[in-house]
Amino acid sequence: MKRQSRFRDVVSATAAGPRLRCFLGAVISICLMGAFVGIPVQAQIEVLKPLHIRRVQGYVTNETGQAVAGARIELFRDGRPVIKAKSDQTGWFRIDGAGGRYVLGAWAGTTEVGREVAVGTNPLTLICHKTLYIMVRTEGSCMDCSIRVYTSKKQFFNAIWQNTGHDD
Question: Which class is domain 51-163?
Answer without folding.
Answer: mainly beta
